[in-house]
Amino acid sequence: MTTRTTTKLPAITLAAVASVVFWSLKPIFISMIGDRGDYAEVYVASAAIAVAVSILVSCIFWKRTSALLRSGSRFYKAVGWSSVAGLFLAMWYYGFYRALYGAAKADATIIAFVWPLIATVAIRFITPETAAKLKPNQWLLVIASFAGAAAIGMANVGVNQSTGTSHEIIWAFVAALGSGMYLPFAFKATNQIEKAVESKPFATFYSISIANGVALLAVLILLRTTDHPLRFYAFDAQVMFICALIGIGTYLIAEVTWTWAFQEYKSLTLSSLPYFSPAVSVILLHVLFDEPVRPIAIVGLVLILFSNLTLHANQKSTNALSLTLIATVYVALASQVLPIEEFGSIPEMAAALTGLFAILAGFILSRASERRTQEVDARAILVRKFIAVDPTEDSTIADRLLCDLLEFEFSETSEEKARYLKSIRDALTDERITDENRREEAQDALSTWHAMYSDRLSIGETAALWLTGIGSVVFVMLLRDVSPFGTAGSIVFAAGAFLAIFTIRDYDQNNLHGFSNQIRRLQQGFADIGKPYYVPAEVVQSGYISPTTFAKTDVVRYGRSDDGENLGDIPKRSVFRSVYMGTAALVILAILILPVSSLTSGRSSATAAPRPDDVIASTTGDDTDAIVIADPGWTAATVAAEIIRLALDEQGIPATVESVDQADLSADLVADDPKFHVHPDLWVANQSLELKEAIADGRLIVNDEPYKASQGIFILDNDRTRREVTSLDDLADPATAALFDTDGDGDGEFWLGARGWVSAQNLREWVDSQDLSSVEAEEYSETIFKAKLEELSRAGQPAVFYDYVPDGLHEKYDLRRLGDVPGEQTADEVEVHVAHGDELTEISPTADRLLQNLSFSTEDMNTFIARSDEGIDPDDIAREWVDSHDELIADWAAPPVG
């Protein structure tokens, strides 16, 4: 068996790593697709490819497929369980893709990966025979991780509240729930199929394939019932290739190969690799696509990772250090929610309570230490009595007594303790014991030791300790200073308080090296009777001892089964232990960094603290070393942003360009401490009232000479629309609206713009307020719409949509302007400015002066767009423009004469 496993180890490792790579790359694949597809199109295409490949593989391995089909009731049960799994799988896929497209990708990835914890809970209820009950300390870990995910979700509620896009993060929770609930039903299906095909990997393949098919069908039904059309207009060969990688790689290869690897090689390190997938995804998203990562998201990520590893390895987590870490996590999360206020005379009360806690903790710790010393002495006497009472030559009775004593001491439930105590008492009544005096002495010694062992803390001492300790922590948190050190200090105080409480709670096992030392010390007696040392199975499974706990020359029994046989050597966890301890260290580091990251920038967009009433942008912290220019994504803005960067660079002013969603950018520009300093292409008329007020009161400064642009509702005509459609009001007629129907449902489609555009929101409100029951108002990416428009133009079909000038569409197609955007007070033309925050007047007066004087013409913008449509890189367009306007740029930056 050992040779077989060792031989396959390289292949198993490769399979495991390949699986994790596919899982980690899914958000990266989504980012690569970008706005060429929306969540529905990407999922349907990927799932359809996966289902097609499953059918092909099933045909190739027809013998196994035939055996499954002929298995009768097993097949029907498998289909039933797989179908239930498929419905939950639909929640996972649909929710995850929708969250990735509608919310911050890093946040969505982290939240969705709570699924192993949900599965941990679900399996205990749905398939209890496959897993042991969760212990109270494990529940603490699960709940703490859910709290971390909830904190990330609450932070998103504070992002883009005005646009409503923040609520898309809820789909990440739906995804996590679906994936967690899917697993136990998939297990049931796999068990049924394995009996028919006699192969775990193939059984997993068939169960996953059926579930994938059901999930695809469920999502298609959902899209149909919600009238959500599929728009594959912008799909090209690259997008289809990426969808194939997602479908084949993650839906099939990753699942099947991982199951095989897990079955063939029982390695904690290998089997824990999936839990690192979100960490890899977040790092790649940040490095490759500059996706923002909030401080609260980092805390949530490492907390979820730590919890997954602990539960996965059944790591012992009842010692003071682990419990303190968990409790401090709760305090750190609470610090992001609790207000910072003044409470009058309460600080004096808090100081008195904290002092009382310190005195009480010291007193109780002294008492606990004294009791512990007495207990150690009593145990030494008990061991000697156990040895003395045994008349057998091989010390069988003494060995049993000492083993049961260790089992009693390390049992975690009162029922187990009672069982082992009864076993000890029964052993002392063994008829082979003939010396009644020694029997009575052993029984008396047992009673004395047990009384001391049980007398740890009284109810009153425990209550006093917890009341003063928790009270001190709460008061210190409420009274913390607004500075980062104030919050960090309160968290450190909480950690110290909890460490004192948990150390007193179980004094003998709760110092850093005490557990291993305790195990070795409790072996007293075995050497005297010539028996190997003994370590209870509970301790072995906890992961808190290693092969180095005892000397190499020591003979040690690690646990025993119900029939009294030894379980074998302790598992070697050196690699996993290093990974696990490193993750715990990351949790501590993240807890301490969180308040500093959250408070050093005041109410900056970096904070993203989970307070739902904070309307802030989903961006990272400000770069004080450079001016940050926003690139909201459309061609004119992209070129203008690079021109501004180059112009500032020529003046010796460091500047960077960062991509950002327009909705996030609008919120950031009016934040108290914004990340972005410059908006290169601000259509003022389309902005929120708050942003317009910021311009009016001088917090946001616009350049002196804007260029003229226009926006409105346009039509790509055919002969009928040219005759019959003269205004937007004509769309109220169902027959007229039907002229723009492209999906065959009789309702005409009206493209309002991309999600998050203010103009799209205004149009949505107008459509909802009118009697336009035959009009389908649509919001999706501009890239998809332009691809659709090209297809409609070739087919001679009309379209009605929002657009703006300058835009390359007006040179490419013969478009007719139908009218202004309803609800807008502007006429045909609007002013488009370069805008910058008033903080630039202090950061760089030269930059402030240059940006106020800088101007583009409408012709410039038309040229930028036309050349970009020809395939020229925006950076090259910007460089050419700067090179040809270098004297003008110098004049813009020059200080006024006199």
From TrEMBL:
> Could you confirm whether the keyword Transmembrane helix appears in this record?
yes
User: Which residues does the UniProt record annotate as the domain EamA?
Assistant: 169-307
Asked whether the UniProt record includes Membrane among its keywords, one would answer yes
Q: Which domain of life is it from?
A: Bacteria
| Keywords from the UniProt entry | Membrane, Transmembrane, Transmembrane helix
* ABC-type glycine betaine transport system substrate-binding domain residues: 626-883
Q: Name one Pfam family in it.
A: OpuAC
Molecular function via GO: transmembrane transporter activity
Could you name the Gene Ontology cellular component terms for this entry? Answer: ATP-binding cassette (ABC) transporter complex
Question: SUPFAM superfamilies under this entry?
Answer: Multidrug resistance efflux transporter EmrE, Periplasmic binding protein-like II
Annotated membrane-spanning segments are: 12-30, 42-63, 75-96, 108-127, 139-157, 169-190, 202-223, 239-261, 273-289, 295-313, 320-340, 346-365, 462-479, 485-504, 579-597
| UniProt-listed InterPro entries | ABC_Gly_betaine_transp_sub-bd, EamA_dom, EmrE-like
What does the similarity note say?
Belongs to the EamA transporter family.
Q: What is this protein called?
A: EamA family transporter
Q: Which organism is it from?
A: Brevibacterium senegalense
